């Protein structure tokens, strides 16, 4: 099955040797997004809620470039420097997702790229 590379200037460009997303058939594998502002490639200024929203906005842009939306997310991984922020992730996530919610994992990590406090990646399943 052929792979299609997904790219959009509405989300941060890759900061390493990876693609924003790869589509294989009707499945889209989205790379991790941190709260980078696409236009500046710098971390967004603001509190943790602002950072989480920026990550969801970045994921939204990549999902749309792949022909889908966050409603198509089957699996979401959330990486946090401080798992104490997990209730805030749930609160903000409710603004971006509705039932049925995707499967999800929350992982506490020691560090993230560029000193970010949050990163998320996702797998989408598009209608065939």
UniProtKB/TrEMBL annotation:
Domain of life: Bacteria
Gene Ontology MF: a single term: deaminase activity
Pfam families in the cross-refs: Ribonuc_L-PSP
A cellular component term, taken from the record's GO annotations: cytosol
Residue ranges of the TM segments: none
NCBIfam families (alphabetical): Rid family detoxifying hydrolase
Family: Belongs to the RutC family.
Name the record gives this protein: Reactive intermediate/imine deaminase
Species for this entry: Solemya pervernicosa gill symbiont
Lineage of origin: Bacteria, Pseudomonadati, Pseudomonadota, Gammaproteobacteria, sulfur-oxidizing symbionts
